[in-house]
Amino acid sequence: MSGVSMTVGAVNLLHRPEINIALIDREGREQSIEAHLDTGFTGNLTLPTAAITQLRLPFIGSTNFRIGDGVLTRFDLYEATIWWQGNQRTINVLASEVFPLVGIGLLWGNNLSVDFKHGGEVSISELQDG
Fold first, then answer.
1. Which ranges of 18-103 does DSSP label H, i.e. alpha helix?
2. Which of 44, 48, 94, 119 is the right S-S partner for 75, CB 3.0 to 4.6 Å?
3. How far does CA 6 lie from the centroid of its chain?
4. Where do the domains of the chain lie, and which CATH numbers do they carry?
5. What confidence tens digit (pLDDT) does each residue in 15-70 have?
6. How far apart are CA 116 and CA 118, in angstroms?
């Protein structure tokens, strides 16, 4: 692959930057989900249990995460394969009954740019080693 890979999204009417994530289910089919970007979340991705069940993601254990109000909370952990910056990538996914969130774990090694206005562009590009 040549050039710089980029993921593009938009700022929604609730002022939240969001992108589409392409997940690959157990049968190898691609399913797209909208996810908000959350720079306060240090994991990769959260998904509602219904989406995890539909994708048939394998359960790999449980883990503790400190949520926004500071409370340490236990989450079920699953494994997912996604398309990210033009490549398939296997990541850990937390089950959470909130809107899907993309965290710093997935954004690490990328440049994030957000035009904070309704419909503003969200772009995520790979950082080049140098």
1. 49-55
2. 94
3. 14
4. 18-108 (2.40.70.10)
5. 999 999 999 998 999 999 999 999 999 999 999 999 999 999 999 999 998 877 88
6. 7
